[in-house]
Amino acid sequence: MTASDRSPHATFQSPLADRYASKAMLALWGGQTRYGLWRRLWLALAESQQALGIAIPDEAIAEMRAHLDDIDFTAVAAYEKSFRHDVMAHVHAFGDVAPAARKFIHLGATSCYVTDNTELVLMRRGLSLLREKLLDVLDALGTFAREWKDVPALGYTHLQPAQLTTVGKRATLWMQDLLLDLEDLEYRIDSLPFRGVKGTTGTQASFLTLFDGDHAKVRELDRMVCERMGFKASIPVSGQTYSRKVDAQVLGVVAGIAATASKFSGDIRMLQAFGELEEPFEKNQIGSSAMAYKRNPMRSERIAALARFVLSLEPNANQTHAVQYFERTLDDSANRRLAIPESFLATDAILVLMQNVTRGLEVHPARIRRRVDDELPFMATEELIVRFVRAGGDRQEAHEIIRGHSIAAARAVKDGAPRNDMLERLAADPAFGVSLEDLQSVAEPARFVGRAPQQVEEFLDEHVAPWLARERAAADVEEVRV
Q1: Is 158 a known active-site residue?
Q2: Among residues 15, 36, 195, 318, which is most buried (max CB within 10 A)?
Q3: Which of 288, 312, 435, 441 is an active site residue?
């Protein structure tokens, strides 16, 4: 083997690992965490079986507990090469370091006892990691929204200029989507079931044999293992696996976060194209290899790219569930090894980017005001008509005068005029008879933002602040779970 063959650059490396996802999320889905959980599950099973009367010596329990994380992956690989079975490879490797427990490890269990239950632990922990980042993004956007709550900006419907909003009010729209995601996420964390102790086809037959037909002890075993692993309850019934609909529900929440982020990134990209707002740009950052002046919204574009990937995985989970014949088939396994971790890793990467963007948004008030001034005279036409009628004019006549001047002013702007001069055109028209000063007082942007500033304050104080407090408390509780 040459030096180049040993290089990490010699073979494909997932960009989620070497470019995008956080260290915490990568560690969560890494082998050390996964197989450490397998050992904890075997320990929980043995401890519960011992408590219910199975003659498992204390020495066996102690040896298992002492070797939960010192996994010899070389030995595991050797066993798996021989057995062609990953779970049995780990059973034997665990038995090597806990010889007193060797004959009790995995007693009565099937592979899905460790694989499925571990997956549920990992998904719940993954949701908690996403929650932490969601809270941080919400906090950053809340600060931004409050700071810019009074600054009028063009609103858009159909991607066309519409009634004014404010810079801060627009940020609350992004935040409301995040709150909806948090509600879904918190529900899934709280209600996610454990697979528990269900046996080969979900009937618990092996455990019923182990306890000499004592149904009560089998039920108690299931409850005790769930409790030891930090879950409220197991799924009521299962085949060999828990229903893969659970995966689809979890990935639905994860994909929902990605969709929210994609919408946010699209808005940022367009606002940056308008020159109103920009994502952070570092001192030595290069926007284009050819066009040195460019400042591209690369973070927002990356959010969009990763979100599209995550959204493609959500239907994958439902498709997997749809073909799980009877008590189980194995065509889910290889698929889930990719789809579930990568959904979490990519969404984690998205939120890392959102944290960066929302903490460093740059607003350009002068450009925003100029764009408002270009459109505001058109939006003020209803009040201009009222002013004309109050001065003794005819409403229909006012409408026709304004229509003519507005079309001419719009055409002039499109043809290169430096600004919208519709108000000056009206003031100079003797048929209209309203002074320029009077017309300009009508076209003050703050008159057209409605309750946007108040809505920002109400939303932040009545909805965001309580959520942040409640969710941070929940996150603190999550830290002490297994």
Answers
A1: yes
A2: 195
A3: 288
